[in-house]
Design a protein that fits this description.
Elements: H1 2-27, H2 32-54, H3 57-70, H4 74-101, H5 103-111, H6 117-142, H7 146-174, H8 179-218, H9 227-263, H10 269-287, H11 289-310, H12 314-341, H13 343-350, H14 358-364, H15 368-383, H16 388-412, H17 414-440, H18 446-471, H19 477-498, H20 504-509, H21 513-527
Helix pairs in contact: 1-7, 1-10, 1-11, 2-4, 2-6, 2-8, 2-9, 2-10, 3-4, 3-6, 3-9, 4-6, 4-8, 4-9, 5-6, 6-7, 6-8, 7-8, 9-10, 9-16, 9-17, 11-12, 11-15, 12-15, 12-18, 13-14, 15-17, 16-17, 18-19
């Protein structure tokens, strides 16, 4: 759990820093929802290429390198790194070239947002840069230098925020707030931040290269595999992860390709673009925030479950999965309920100059609980070696998403895209959940995993809501929302302890859990 907390805090910091530049862009005069539409549509195409060329690469290389290092075969570990470097460098270069030379065609024919051409051009070099960076991160992870990867990711996000603000402000001043140029500047900031992250990784590699080379020379035993076999080994791990991620981001890419196209049939193009900008720029950004709290469980489950299964400790594997799913519910459920209830207030707080989209956020929030649960279950399935199940689940989800987008958007507008996403996430969750139950014959008590967490979440919501109503006339709105939510969170934690949702053993698994438990017991006895 200490490892989970570290990963969680790292992801939270990255998400918060990322939210800063999103808030800035949306509130910036001349950018707003239209700028978000141009920026986000290009970014979804970029994310699609990025998924193909680099997602899964760090895990694949890390696994292969660590297995060689563990038996003292540093020479072959370094050889794997060099082959992967050439392989994914070439793949990344091809991806960047397609984006660069096909920018106009993609913007006009696929996105149907011609203004996105400049943003695609600005983003195109990033595919190559990230591909190279992913190989370096995988090598460092395999050598147990995980902090280097974490530092590079944090630096990338910080540089991205700084460059975004600096470049957009500069372009806004010299172009009379031209939205298209400002969006291009924002995406150029991503490319520059990626470059600086790669420079950091490369400089670190140069710093340790002498030490690495000593290990390579000193390595006496080498089991030399053919280049083809190494490539197959890398692909065997990276392809399922990449496909899973590909189908995951496909839902957003489907929105990028279908929303404006469908909305233009019964509203002006400018209005259709604004609607998509609200959905992609503000709503999707806020909906993904809870995932950063939960991704640590999905990440940490893979090695822990693998280790338990290897030792045939099925009971321990089940307990770890049950605990992770329970904590996921305790994170996801209140986030879902609070975003539904306070959607307008949250948008007013974060985007005072462009606060529209409350109904979209409230409706989209319904998907949070299903997404975070699927995220955790996927980590468990990967740990069990069932890497193809998430791929199948997300593939079905993507197909459902596309069908419902085409059917619903012409009938109910932008809400059709949101409803189709919710249905897609539910389908993916059901497939993964059924597979997990079948593979481990797991049973989940409704009282512990659903009824009690729901009661606690409703109690938190009521407390927050009545606090908001009672103090509405006396406290400034921005402070009021934060205060109401903080009081609700305190009540939520107390209700979790009172209802005994977490057992004593489970509380002790949490860092400082023993202290929390003893203090609660002491106060409870005093009250008694």
């Amino acid at each position: 759990m200490e490892g989970v907390i570290v990963l969680m805090l790292s992801q939270v910091v990255i998400k918060i820093v990322g939210l800063i530049y999103k808030i800035y862009l949306t509130n910036r005069e001349g950018f707003g929802d239209r700028g978000n539409a141009i920026y986000s549509s290009a970014f979804q195409i970029y994310a699609l290429f990025l998924t193909i060329s680099s997602i899964g690469v760090p895990n694949a290389i890390s696994k292969l390198v660590s297995s060689k290092v563990a038996v003292g075969d540093n020479k072959e570990a370094y050889r794997i790194f060099k082959i992967a470097f050439a392989m994914f460098g070439l793949l990344g270069f091809v991806g960047s070239s397609i984006l660069f030379f096909g920018a106009e065609y993609i913007a006009n024919n696929y996105l149907q947002i011609p203004e996105a051409k400049l943003t695609i051009l600005a983003l195109s070099p990033s595919v190559f840069l990230v591909s190279i960076a992913s190989v370096l991160r995988g090598y460092f992870n395999g050598k147990e230098n995980i902090s280097v990867t974490a530092n590079s990711q944090s630096l990338e996000q910080i540089f991205k925020t700084i460059f975004t603000i600096l470049l957009v402000e500069q372009i806004a001043s010299i172009s009379s707030k031209n939205t298209i140029l400002m969006a291009g500047a924002a995406t150029l900031a991503t490319t520059l931040a990626t470059l600086f992250s790669l420079i950091y990784l490369y400089r670190y590699f140069i710093k340790i290269k002498r030490e690495v080379w000593k290990e390579v020379i000193a390595s006496k035993k080498q089991k030399k595999d053919s280049v083809i076999k190494i490539i197959r080994s890398i692909l065997a791990v990276s392809v399922p992860i990449a496909l899973c991620a590909l189908f995951s981001v496909t839902t957003k890419t489907i929105d990028a390709l279908t929303v404006v196209r469908s909305l233009k049939n019964f509203m002006r193009e400018e209005e259709a673009t604004l609607q998509y900008g609200i959905l992609s720029g503000k709503v999707d950004t806020l909906i993904t925030l809870p995932f950063s709290f939960n991704i640590a469980f999905a990440t940490a489950l893979v090695p822990t479950i693998s280790a338990a299964i290897a030792k045939k400790e099925i009971y321990i594997a089940k307990k770890r999965i049950e605990f992770s799913i329970l904590v996921t519910i305790l994170i996801g459920l209140p986030c879902t309920i609070c975003m539904c209830m306070f959607s307008n207030q949250i948008l007013d707080l974060l985007f005072p100059n462009a606060s529209s989209g409350g109904e979209m956020l409230a409706l989209s929030a319904c998907s949070i609980i299903f997404v975070v649960l699927t995220q955790t279950i996927n980590g468990a399935l990967q740990g069990l070696g069932k890497v193809n199940v998430p791929v199948i689940a997300f593939a079905f989800g993507a197909i459902i998403k596309l069908i419902f987008n085409i059917v619903l958007i012409p009938i109910i507008g932008i809400k059709g895209a949101i409803i189709s996403s919710i249905i897609s996430h539910i389908i993916s969750f059901i497939i993964c959940f059924i597979s997990l139950k079948r593979n481990l014959q797991m049973t989940f008590k409704i009282n512990k995993f659903f009824i009690k967490p729901l009661i606690s979440s409703i109690g938190m919501l009521l407390c927050s809501y009545f606090t908001y109503i009672e103090l509405y006339l006396f406290v400034p709105k921005k402070i009021l929302l934060i205060t109401s939510l903080l009081i609700g969170i305190i009540v939520y934690v107390i209700l979790i302890l009172i209802l005994k949702i977490l057992s004593k053993e489970e509380i002790f698994m949490i860092p400082y859990g023993q202290k929390i438990y003893k203090k609660f017991k002491k106060n409870k006895n005093k009250i008694g």
